[in-house]
Design a protein that fits this description.
single chain; 489 residues; alpha/beta; Rossmann fold; 2 domains; ten-stranded mixed sheet; six-stranded parallel sheet; 18 helices; 21 strands; 37% helix; globular
Amino acid sequence: MSKLPVAFVSSEVAPWSQTGGLGDVGGALPQALNAQPDLDVIVFTPLYRSARAVVELRGLALEAIGDDFVLGEGTARLLRLVGGPTPTVFVDAPHLFHRPGLYGPGSGSAYTDTGKGAFDDNLERFSRFCEAVVTHGHRAFGAPIALYHCHDWQAALVPGLLPDGPERPGCVLTIHNLAYQGVFAGDQVLGRAAPPAYQRQGHLNLLAGAIAMADQVTTVSPHYAEEITTVAFGCGLEANLRWRGVTGIVNGIDASDWNPRQDPALPAPFDAADLRGRAEARRGLLAELGLPDEPGTLLLGVVSRLAGQKGPDLVAELVPRLGSLRARLIVLGSGEPAHEAHLQALSVRHRHRFGLRLDFDRELARRIYAGVDAILVPSRFEPCGLVQMYAMAYGALPIVSPVGGLVDTVTDASVPGEGTGFAMDAVHAAALARAVQRAGDLLRDEPEAWAALQQRAMATDWSWQASASAWARLFRGVMAPLAHAQPAA
């Protein structure tokens, strides 16, 4: 069986580069896709300064593929990662990517395109990245690329650069968060007029252009795929998406990595059959955050970007009610300064019930999943969400908003024999408090019912294998009509 050459094009790929869930998907999905018998997937991603540092820290090597080439105002080259679980090629363009941060001078947001905190040449940076992959990416395969799988606005110019005609490769666009579209002033890209699909009323919208020009548009959960065709969630592109149609495939997680039986970040291993390690994790977590323990107290956790989408203001409104709810709260995250400052002030006033770390700490995140009773995910919109999956794998029950991928991945405790968490009945602070109250009451009053929820949550298979099979079917569906359109030899 000949394999389909697929270029997986992403601005973030864990562990080399990451500021959010996009990096998790970029690191895990290609590995699962390559387990499919008919796919040959190579990842293409920028070689940021920080990515090179991670490669060197892990003692891995990079080897050049062919000669250097001109890329905009400088030169670039393709570097193949030697070793590692997934075939990966870095676009090494120092004039574009050798600087602090991925999208801006700080840690940046996974979705920053323009505005405060963004590099003012992000259009040039990621357009040239797309150009490098389309023009030179075939070198990595030693043959033409049959299909490009492009992720978010940073890779959205790829379908606009592909040649017309019967030999045009297939192209799949995946939207991880529609709120960030790659909007820039003017109508020029790569020194020339952008394809008309990318031009919107005097400015560029990279994601809108890709929606029009890709062969298939996908997103990361079925419910979010429905939501973004509506005015409430469509961010101005709902008509475009209704016209094109959107397929939703739920993300997965790396089950070998997110496994409490073998996680070195935890004080003791555990699994669904033996949860004693969770008690040790709870004690250690409370000590780490300087919080006292009390029998019968519901321990809540938040691991999140502190951005409006994620509902940190709803969490903040919950803090003064922790006493009446018989709950304690630990928040790990960083993001918008206003949210950070508000939570910081609350952590001082409520220091015996609320512990805060304004940071992105992978190991502490794992200890939170292992030590808390429940994880709060009160998002205003959530394309898929990975936090709730990580939490369930570690025995923490999710308390979630009724939106997007949270609907697809969490079943409310009220559903007999199927519950895995708690769904809010609306997206506001009072609804979050009601859901927390329900969870606390169940934990204290019906421990056997709580244990049943916990067992179901931990038994849920969130591995990438099922998603990879769905992706493989989608790729084949894209390529079938293209193959039919090829001229006879």
